[in-house]
Design goal:
Distance between the termini: 41 Å
CATH topology: Amino acid/polyamine transporter I
CATH superfamily: Amino acid/polyamine transporter I
CATH class: Mainly Alpha
CATH architecture: Up-down Bundle
Main location: membrane
Strand content: under 5%
Organism: Cloacibacillus porcorum
Radius of gyration: 21 Å
Membrane topology: Multi-pass membrane protein
Subcellular location: Cell membrane
Pfam families: AA_permease_2
């Protein structure tokens, strides 16, 4: 029999740090440093540094909102608190509309890395992606404590491999590869920053887990702070060796990490990077499933979904009905992707634009709700930045704008 009690408080700051890192670091770490260096040259290092600094006020706003007002609704709950039930409903449905579109392609990217090791085809890649999603759902179903411990182990393994890559490549760094520092001008640095923005998304997932922290007021800022420092050090270290070794000039930037390790270790590098790509992609899938299930649960508590989705598992204390719902949704999209040979680019572009709009709503909500001046300033800065980047999303922005228009018309009494 299901339970309607409270979510179990079992997340420590260490588990929160691992889950946050897992949400932020994705497969982009394998390709973005080389792509950025190809666009801006050595000045791409400045792009990474500046994006890390720009993401800091967003992080600060999320930390203050999540720790002061722990609610598994996350940004949707903050939007409701700031602008009323209509905006809260809109933020939640924007996230739900993006989840089934963006999650399967993320799993598929990791599966493609794995299948490249064994020469498996597209059918096997889709099966492997489905297995990855099912694994994440199963671990999340058993409880956030087990989920957090598994994420801590996986993220530690990823960081160890990336440290190994950096240390192995230090001997290949040449001072000549840092000159000229600005081969393509300042415009290239700005263009690179807009590309790297997506490497700094995912911090908001901790908001959906806020109710399950043992001490949210203390542990959430600790988790986000530790994750911020680790993520930025890893990004800068990888970018440094990619630029310093000049490996990005040798051909396809998508395999630059393979080439980088081959400089020292030869063919086994392909196996290492293939496994790393698969595991790196598992981390955001795992954390996003955890976050989305809590959001669905919170929205059901508010009456936006059937009450059964607001029930918890009697043994594990998890929103099991929401987790079960994700299985057919995601597997159906994977099947359609295989059957229709869908292009992954729009399947990633649409949810990216949608989340930028969600960030905009969430950050302006923080600017209105937070009682301290520093928090309001951080929210305002981050909301403005998110809105500016959203404006450059191209036709992908039409999807979230259509969802927003529908909800304003459909639930206009809640907005006006």
């Amino acid at each position: 029999m299901a339970s309607s009690g409270e979510l179990k408080k079992s997340i420590t700051w260490l588990h929160g740090t691992a889950m946050t890192i897992g949400a932020v670091i994705g497969a982009g770490i394998l390709v973005l440093p080389a792509i950025a260096a190809d666009i801006a040259g050595p000045a791409s290092l400045a792009s990474w540094l500046l994006m890390g600094l720009i993401s800091l006020p967003m992080l600060a706003a999320i930390a203050q909102m999540s720790s002061r007002y722990p609610n598994s609704g996350g940004i949707a709950a903050y939007a409701q608190q700031a602008f009323g039930p209509g905006m809260g409903r809109l933020a939640g449905f924007l996230i739900f509309s993006a989840m089934p579109i963006g999650l399967p392609p993320t799993a598929l990217i990791g599966a493609n890395y794995l299948c490249s090791l064994f020469g498996w085809g597209t059918g096997a890649a889709h099966i492997a992606a489905g297995a990855l999603i099912l694994t994440a759902v199963a671990l999340n179903l058993r409880g956030i404590e087990l989920s957090g411990k598994s994420q801590l182990f996986i993220v530690s393994a990823i960081l160890l491999i990336l440290i190994f890559v950096v240390l192995s490549s230090l001997a290949e760094i040449r001072p000549a590869n840092f000159t000229p520092f600005l081969p393509h001008g300042l415009d290239a640095v700005g263009h690179t920053m807009s590309l790297l923005f997506f490497a700094f998304l995912g911090w908001e997932m901790i908001g959906h887990l806020a109710e399950e922290f043992k001490d949210p007021r203390r542990d959430i800022p600790l988790s986000l702070g530790a994750a911020y420092v680790i993520v930025n050090i890893v990004y800068l270290a990888i970018a440094l060796v990619v630029v310093g070794s000049g490996v990005y000039k040798s051909g396809n930037p998508n395999i630059a990490m393979v080439s980088l390790i081959k400089l020292r270790w030869g063919e086994p590098a392909a196996v290492l990077v293939g496994l790393l790509g698969f595991v790196v992609c598992y981390c955001p899938v795992h954390t996003y499933i955890a976050g989305f299930s809590r959001l669905f649960y919170a929205q059901a508590r508010e009456g936006y979904f059937p009450k059964c989705f607001g029930e918890l598992h009697p043994l594990y204390g998890t929103p099991f009905r929401a987790l079960q719902l994700f299985v057919p949704l995601n597997l159906s999209l994977l099947f359609l992707s295989w059957a229709l040979s869908w292009d992954l680019k729009p399947l990633l572009g649409i949810p990216s634009a949608t989340f930028l709009l969600v960030y905009t709503i969430g950050m302006f909500s923080a600017a209105k709700v937070l009682p301290v001046r520093s928090g309001r300033i951080c929210g305002l800065l981050s909301g403005t930045l998110s809105l500016a980047v959203f404006a450059f999303s191209g036709w992908y922005m039409l999807f979230p704008l259509a969802v927003a228009l529908y909800f304003v018309v459909r639930y206009k009494k809640e907005f006006f």
